[in-house]
Amino acid sequence: MRRSAFRRSRGDGPFRFASTGAGIVLLAIMAAIGVFLVVKAVPALQANTSHFLTELTWQPNATKPVFGIGALAFGTVLSSLLALVIATPVAVGVALFISHYAPRRLASVLGYVVDLLAAVPSVVYGLWGVTFLVPFMLGPSKFLNDYLGWIPLFGGDTVVGKSMLTASLVLAIMILPIIAAISREIFLQAPKMQEEAALALGATRWEMIRMSVLPFGRPGVISAAMLGLGRAMGETIAVALIFPATFNISFQILGPYGNSIAANIANGFGEATEVGRGALIASGLVLFLITLLVNMAARFVIARRKEYARAAA
Amino acid sequence: MTVQTGIQPISAARRAKDRLVQVLVYLAFALAVIPLLSVLWLVVKNGLGRFDMEFLTHSMRNIGARDAGGGAYHAIIGTLEQVLLASLIAVPIGLLTAVYLVEYGEGGRLSRTISFFVDVMTGVPSVVSGLFVLAFWILVLGMPFSGFAGALALSILMMPVVVRSAEEMLRLVPRELREASYALGVPKWRTIVKVVLPTAFTGIVTGVMLAVARVAGETAPLLLTVFITDSINNDPFNGPQMGLPLYVFDQAGRPTDTAINRAWTGALTLILIVMLLNLVARLITWWRSPARRR
Known about the structure:
The complex is a heterodimer.
Chain A: H1 3-7, H2 12-47, E1 58-59, E2 66-67, H3 70-101, H4 104-119, H5 122-148, H6 164-188, H7 192-200, H8 205-234, H9 237-242, H10 261-268, H11 274-304
Antiparallel strand pairs in A: 1-2
Chain B: H1 12-47, H2 53-57, H3 73-104, H4 109-122, H5 126-140, H6 147-172, H7 175-183, H8 188-216, H9 220-225, H10 244-252, H11 257-288, H12 290-293
């Protein structure tokens, strides 16, 4: 068969067209998400009698709708950052354990066990959180309030189980396997020669890790943490069951305060009027944009380094 | 002054630091496993009580707020249908996109853009995909709340996972296989359909199963698209249809103990379904691993 005949063989055109088209459909979906959220958010925003970005209260179903993203965005960011602070050190420890400490035969099995944490549906974490963790956290929270109450975060007069701290803890558990899995892949790719050179020069295992593995893995761990942050911000059902659903800004993470954009959507959808639905969609648009930025930044860091190519998947 | 020769022992301080880090790392792993064990233990302990035939074969229709009994049959049916429909949408698009990225993209601008946005798409919060379907399908197009609307939302979450896993599997197919096929005069598309895809088939199936397992537990997109109902609805295209994760959320929000017990049993059923899918995926991977093929 001639080369040109091979190139122009029948069927290749349509198949190429279909697969390229599928890729473009994916891009179109991403664009459509933005477009249609805007389309349905605008009428509600026009009906709003307050400023959407700074208003704290959320009463879009009233005859004179008043709603704003202020308190919700604050709760989303605070709870996700807390979750990140709790989860990242543990996740890095887990990743090091599996990549450099665990016996090699066990490592993959133990890695699978940590991955299982990610396989548990979020509604199950919510159920577990609200029936077990909420009452359980009352003791430790009181302890923190009694002895570390001088730190503003742990201050306040009322201490409850359904608090920002408990919600953040559940979020931390949920994002831990994501951060751990990516960090693990990156630690495994640390240059073996450097590791062996460090050991040959008499470094202890920790010194070897500090000098060759961690510097190599740092950008990867940072972007893994950002992916975790994106996931924490978008997490809905687990925290919807735990947050007390208040609309204020308070740094007292042990008190009866806390809400997030996603949790508010889940809790408020049932009784939402037309304007109410639009308001929820507007808040979802804000969430979409924030997570988009966080994820793109994280992906950009990973994509820039070719060594990480395998871990990015 | 004495001249020291040979290798000196590692100083006590350095050894202590090494030990300390080792303990911390082991502790981190233990800390990560504790919640997993706690969740699994409580789900099994609290869920087994209602894990009976009535739960698996009855819906919540005509079950009063304080009544015991009732089940999740309507929710199980709904979840199976929704996940199946979501797969029917997401798998072809995802697979074709992976084929484009590996076989046709050739590192061009479009393929790099698609690849980047597939990564970004994995980070789209599940509630946002639900809101999108609500805004587009239900509010703009005026379609009813239905299992299919839920399936649309789930398929958006599935696509990037399918693309990534299929892409990885297609890249593993040796170049020699493709070249041998071209050398025999087989056109590119037939090479892909007859040589590349069958070679990667089991790997792709594994990826799809993991994607299915991921979306089967999603609640937020369903909440906004299928609407909560207590009745059996076998038709995913018309009217509200329950889903198992949504059932757990609904029951967990009710104040009575009997409802909480149903929520636990629903969670147990859900975890069993997800674990089963995960296990099947692992078995397929293991079955096809090079060590066994010999």
